[in-house]
Amino acid sequence: MHMLNANDFDLALSFSSGQPLGFYADYRVGKGKEFLSYVTSKGIFRLQCYGSGARKKIDYEFEGGYSEMEARKEVRKRLGLDDDLKSVYKAISTDAFMKEAVSALRGLRITQNEPWETTLCFVVSQVNNMKRIRFTIKNIIERFGAYDAGIGARLFPTPHDVAKASLADLRRCGTGFRASYIKSAATAFAEGFDADAVHGMNYRSAKTEFMRLDGVGDKVADCILLFAYKKLDAFPIDVWIKRTLEHVYFSGHRKGIMALHEFAERRWDGYAGYAQQYIFQHARANKIAKKEVQLKRMFS
DNA sequence: ACCCAGGCGGGCG
DNA sequence: CGCCCGCATGGG
Question: Confidence class of residue A288 from pLDDT cuts 50, 70 and 90?
């Protein structure tokens, strides 16, 4: 068992706020500890989180193709432990709404996941809900991941594993109309799409590169850049973000996606991705702007 | 019976 | 560019 210090890290929030980790990891609470386990394409990690504030600790163990140093780096990176939250909070606490969100969600971090895992998760996420996204991703792991007898579990399926699946088999995982997008993205990753090269690109170029994949548009591309490449200027705009920005900053007036991108870039320069995650989670937790939408619909 | 869910691609003007 | 539609599927 190895140990890490994890100041200002809230595992439950980071896990449950719609990030890839929350789509394929297992999480539970007990005995004053939180437990998290997740598979990668190379192995498995099991974590225990305990303590609070500046004395927060994480014990972890791993199996699979990782050296001690690689495993430690994997956990720190995966959980976002090296992010300087003080700087983040300073940059995104631009108004009363953001201060309230930060105050309510202190310790929520942006996780960093593998590009292929993240792509699969967010292609599956489109016009879908959290519960079914988790259901579908777990089905895909169970059905297509290679069984590792040493570990006693299925690893996260590689692009090749998924590319060779039939559309019908993908459908059986609950993917619905996204099956062809998934197969197409898996094929691209398996046949030379250079996911590693994207690390060295700026946000704009990286986004253009990912949007060439069938089934990856503006929103999914931003999710991949944020949650796999940690490009903090990425700002995924889903229905919640759109409604909430319109509600909080534009008196409820409707705005186009591009206008909202420009707004976020100006307002949270360099940290828009973090702002987005706090807006998303805070809006959902409090159903902000949702009742208003329903009322409008009733009287229109 | 309807609406909604971390959208996207294609067609139209 | 903008808007509108269909795309599976389960849950309120």
Answer: confident
A129 CA – C12 C1', rounded, Å: 12
> Whole-angstrom Cα distance, residue A144 to residue A260?
38
Nearest-CA neighbor of A78 among A93, A58, A92? A58
CB A128 within 7 Å, strand B: yes
Residue A23: which of A207, A216, A228 has the closest Cα?
Answer: A228
Of A198, A219, A25, A221, whose CA–CA distance to A111 is shortest? A25
Cβ of A241 less than 7 A from strand B: yes
Span A208-239, pLDDT tens digits: 999 999 999 999 999 999 999 999 999 999 99
- Chain B positions with any atom < 7 A from a protein CB: 3-9
Contact A38, A25 (CB under 8 A): yes
- Please tell me what DSSP assigns to residue A155: P
Could you tell me the domains of chain A?
2-81 (3.30.310), 84-107+235-300 (1.10.1670), 115-229 (1.10.340.30)
- Nucleotide closest to residue A216 (CA–C1'): B8
Distance CA A110, CA A227 (A): 7
CA atoms of A132 and A184, how far apart (whole Å): 21
- Number of Cβ atoms within 10 Å of the Cβ of A182: 24
Mean pLDDT of A130-135: 97
A157 touches strand C (CB under 7 A): no
Q: What is the pTM of this model?
A: 0.97
3-state helix, strand, coil in chain A (%, to 5): 55, 10, 35
